Amino acid sequence: MGEESKVPLLKSELAPHNPDQGPALRVGVIGTGNYALALTKRLTAMAGCDVIIGSRKPELRRASLSGSGACRCGVVLTTVRECVRSSDLVIVAIHREYFSETLSEIAHLAAGKVVIDVSNRETRAVGQSNAEYLESILPEAAVVKAFNSVSAFAMEDLGDSGNSRNVYVAGNDPEARNRVIALAQAMGFRAVNLGHLQSARWMENELLSVFALWKIPIALALAIYLLCWLFVIYIYWIDRPTPRYSWEQIFIKVNNKPVCMTAITLMALTYLPGHLASILQVYYGTKHRRFPQFLDTWLKSRKQLGLVSFILVALHAVMSVLIMSSAYFGGWFHKRTLTLPANLTLESRVTLGLSQEVMTWRGEVILMLGILGLLLMTLVAVTSIRSVGDSLNWGEWRAVQSRLGHVVLVVSVAHVTVKGAEYWWRLGFPKVFRSAAFMSVLIPYLVLALKLAFSLPPLAGYLRNIRRGWERPGARYGPDNTERHTGNDGPFMGTGVLVSAVDGPPIKLSGSNSGSVTALQMEIREDDTVQYPDSKAFSSL
């Protein structure tokens, strides 16, 4: 390597190379930007690799790297041509627009080698990914997409072991994918095998999504909250000769009602789409027909709906504690009176109400159910955190998200019912529909009724058979039979898939878009919903 130059770079003592294992892996990094240097640091410090940096202008970059103040011992800086020729594995850390001019003339040097693309896009694309474009320039190389989901800061931070970070890996050559997975693990990351290189399209587009799955749940929550506020204003101010509350109470006391109504409604809407999916599967007589687009989007938003509901439940609890007194919740406390007999001062007997802070059984039951519901919902919400969810196997995760989740809904409905049942009975029909509490539990009651129906014979066994692959004679497959799933080679219509994860539980996918899923390495699970990598739904079917 006549043009190469040694530039000081940190050679970490954390991962010294063991000579008994043969020569260290020589990794070529094309590029000298921040991300390329962060890669170099982690490759040498944690993976024990020998790194060769390739630059189009090595002499110019040598001066800037030497003056950066960082120790870069044992790393070679050379030309791109020499970097590719001398490396066992090559990482391309330059932008897409420089792929052709940098690599096209030396494509023959990359023949038979594993080439990793770490680039990302600035705008979403439907067609060819950066990795597929790189493969067209280096047709004889085994191109693999990886590391694009890890920032330069996280890559460089050696204090972060990286085990909580997923590195998605996609490539057409299984052996090349396995080599990159092994390298990612050596660098301290958790590798997830996404199968063929076509999955790189999802990998690149996913990073451009800014809270994509949160937009609909937040908008829905705001819309429900606004409707609840309008309903509260109508029943407490407009539909009364005299207002029930003063305008001074709108911030906590009155606002607590639409917050509570929105929270329990969103909680019910978290579990409702799963039951609607069950209804459609029973109606279709097969699990191999796609759900409508609105239901598919709804299913993918369940985690976010549940978490927004949890935040509102916590807010409701705090607001209730702030106003917890007999002045606001008179029906929850025992009433004590003082009667003054008639005397020289008083012409007749006078009865005075005294403040009493001892709760009735009803008030204590309401509080007990509220506290229990909040604690159980906290457990459900905590398992939505990736590190916690990944520590659970499928059975444990589903038990918490689905079964415990429905228990939370039961407790929450009981909390509202105990609070308002006596008042609902006094109102009677149809005035009961003017009760905020009664209106807020209608959808939750529907969800619990559907849960009960699908948990008992005959629907329970019938639905279980459908999800295990049985099809009713004359099953409805839609306008044509092209949507029918005939095995592992066809599209997945509402069935569950799992992306194989290395050294960890599988990551559940969500959605029924077969175009974005069929390229992945998957395993069918009999009654799962489909959910994109990186997020478990707040509840399951």
Automatic annotation (TrEMBL):
All copies of domain Pyrroline-5-carboxylate reductase catalytic N-terminal, residue ranges: 26-120
Any one GO biological process: copper ion import
Family annotation (InterPro entries): NAD(P)-bd_dom_sf, P5C_Rdtase_cat_N, STEAP_metalloreductase
Record flagged with keyword Membrane: yes
Gene Ontology MF, one: cupric reductase (NADH) activity
GO cellular component: endosome; plasma membrane
Ranges annotated as spanning the membrane: 211-237, 263-284, 305-329, 365-383, 437-463
Keywords: Membrane, Oxidoreductase, Transmembrane, Transmembrane helix
Pfam families, sorted: F420_oxidored (PF03807)
Species this protein is from: Elysia chlorotica
Protein's recorded name: Pyrroline-5-carboxylate reductase catalytic N-terminal domain-containing protein
PANTHER family xref list: DUDULIN-RELATED, F420-DEPENDENT NADP REDUCTASE
